[in-house]
Structures are given as structure tokens and as C-alpha cells.
């Protein structure tokens, strides 16, 4: 099988249900999700399997679900097939967020990306996830989308933040606080 097809040489690409320009907002949305998936892989490569088996399993599930997000975003018309991303996936992210948040010290100030290398890359995942979410919001204003993808990405960025803090905590490395911040957070 050849990797190249030459079908995109004129600046268009195939999506589920047709062809669009490569700079179409739909392609920008699922392309940013694909970029995020690459950074998740990088974060996983930095995590020790003995210390982080649960997080590695969760991140692998996230990678598969990001492919589901991309697949739903590449769908021109829902009637072509059912959506893959569901509210159950969002609910599960919330469970993971609560679990990893329970491992971290109370947060009092804004947190800067840093600490361990893996934590820093998880913060990159968080920011790329936010950009993907913005691209999906733009797409959703112009065309129908699976609203669960937007919800999933919104929750996923919170997961990356919490996971980054948990990695630092398990590694006995403190989070890097924004020193110019007053104490703005209080756990209830």
C-alpha cells in the first residue's frame, strides 16, 4: 500500500461525506485534535510505567477517544453514521479528574507549567486542547457538530491540568506557583 495518494495535491482533502479545502474550519478543528494526540503520546513516553500505570492507561484511552473526536468532526452529515463521542466519556473524565485531584496538595495560587518534564508536556496538552476546543466552537457556529466533542474537549483540558499536578505530586516535585498571584483558590 502506498502512503501517498496525490488526491490532496490541489488543496482539498477527503472527509466523511465529501471533500473540503485543506484550510476548511472542519479540517482545522480535527487537525488540532490530531496535534493534541501527538502531544499526549509525547507525555506518555516520558512517564514511568511502574509509577504511573493508571495514568498511562487513562492517557491511552484518551488517545483513542481523540481519534473518535476527530472522526466525529470529519463527518459532514450525522445521518451518514452515528456519533462516537458520548456523554459517558465526559462523565468518566470527571471521575478521573476527581481521582487525580485527590492526590495533589491544595491549590492556592495559579500554577505555571513546570516541575517534571512529563508534567510540563501535560500542560502543553492542556493548552493545545483548549485551542482544539476553540476550533470546535468556531466549527459549531458554522456547521452542525456533535456537541459532546466540545464538552469532551472542555473537560479534557481540566483532566490534563489535574494529571500534570498529579505527576508532580507522585514525583515529589512541587508545582510551580505564579509568585505574583495572591491566594485565589480555596478548597471547600
Automatic annotation (TrEMBL):
InterPro entries for this protein: CblAdoTrfase-like (IPR016030), CblAdoTrfase-like_sf (IPR036451), PduO-typ (IPR029499)
Pfam families referenced in this protein's UniProt entry, alphabetically: Cob_adeno_trans
GO biological processes: cobalamin biosynthetic process
EC class: transferase
Keyword entries, A-Z: ATP-binding, Cobalamin biosynthesis, Nucleotide-binding, Transferase
Molecular functions (GO terms): ATP binding; corrinoid adenosyltransferase activity
Organism superkingdom: Bacteria
Domain Cobalamin adenosyltransferase-like: 3-166
EC number: 2.5.1.17
Annotated pathway: Cofactor biosynthesis; adenosylcobalamin biosynthesis; adenosylcobalamin from cob(II)yrinate a,c-diamide: step 2/7
Reaction it catalyzes: 2 cob(II)alamin + reduced [electron-transfer flavoprotein] + 2 ATP = 2 adenosylcob(III)alamin + 2 triphosphate + oxidized [electron-transfer flavoprotein] + 3 H(+); 2 cob(II)yrinate a,c diamide + reduced [electron-transfer flavoprotein] + 2 ATP = 2 adenosylcob(III)yrinate a,c-diamide + 2 triphosphate + oxidized [electron-transfer flavoprotein] + 3 H(+)
Subunit structure as annotated in this protein's UniProt entry: Homotrimer.
Family label: Belongs to the Cob(I)alamin adenosyltransferase family.
Protein name: Corrinoid adenosyltransferase
Organism: Paenibacillus xerothermodurans
Taxonomic lineage from the root: Bacteria, Bacillati, Bacillota, Bacilli, Bacillales
